[in-house]
Here is the input.
Amino acid sequence: MSKVGCHVGNPVVFEAKGIKVHAGGTNRSGGWHVMSPMPDVAIGPIGVMKSAKTRDIMPLGWSCSDKVSIGQTPVLFEIDWPDYNIPNNLGREWWLAFVDDCISKGIKSISTQCMGGHGRTGVQLCILAHMLEATTQPDAGSLIRWVRERYCEHAVEAKCQQDYIAEMLQIPVGESAIAVQSHNPWAGQNFNDDLAFTQAELTAQKKHETKKKAEKKAPRWKKKYESPIRNGWSLVAGGDGEEDFFEWRRTRTEDMEAPCRHSGTAVKQADISLMEGTKLVTCEVTERQWHPIEMATKSKSNAAMAKELEMKVKDIDDGGTSILINRTWHPTWFVKYHKGEFISWLKYYDDVLHKSDKKADKLPSFKKKDNQRTLTDFTDDGDVFDLDGQYIDFRDEEDWSFDPDEEYEIDGVSLRETNDEIESEDVL
Here is the structure.
């Protein structure tokens, strides 16, 4: 089920023993740093908490430190807690001590969070709800469903998380509240047939398997690629085993089955990574986390780069951001920073990549008439010179969004990886 627009901000999920417990995801306009007033205590995974720190650091003992209008920084608890998993070193005694401390110290508000505000945030909510006696549920499965009814239907995402809740609270695991279709490498679990699926989940899985078998038997040319994000387009990812390369492609069979332009390996649809907010990187300018397709360079997001170019940028209702290009607002995930300017992926795909492919099919001319070049205008190492014999340097600002026009240097000389990339430039 899609997680787009499922929750935003930091809603109060429950209140018990005089303590309001909030929840949110840092990539869904949530997290302690955007709360006003600030919570007394904030708890969440290491990395997520640090990346969210946008507050000024002020010294103790200075009167100006007490004059910050939005309140003081809360007490922060940063936990070693991998995504889709459980804390590495927190047992039942820690959670009991944490709750006792909150009560004895008169804490009035707690902010729980993680990246998406689902798996790890849901575990925190379940444990705190039980220990603060906000509810009494017979087992972990029932407790998870109680939290989902008050917060988000995607709270708690992995079997190991449900097992952890049961262990920390010393209650039965109960009926599985986890719908798992395939092994998740981040969950630390080898999912098998022993999982307690509901009949509805088993029926849905059977339909899915039947559909996949039918697709394999269908003629190659009839295969369809659908995207839940943008009609006629799909986000794909290719990689060399160490790094993923993302790009938008039209959902035509010949386009979707073409190999990755960087690694030469097969690509796979990656729409879910954008929808669920995974594989995020941090913009050094905004200190906000973005999907790689939303990054103009390795350290700068499309939004930050657009502001530097004095372009109009605005936040939209679903928590995303849009950039105005030629009187049309485009989401940051569907724009491309190319040769010092922003264009839509539609224009980039059709006018740059597709045009380049057509040029690659043409044989070079051995004639030189007017301004037409010959093969001698290209050196043996791939360097390009203009008609006056001047070397053309194609290096622009660093363009990290997996541009096939990417360059590299050897001994201080700019080179291309392939002749196709040479011929893709608009120099012919």
About this structure: The first strand starts at residue 12 and ends at 16. The mean pLDDT is 79. Residues 199-217 form the longest helix (19 residues). The radius of gyration is 26 Å.
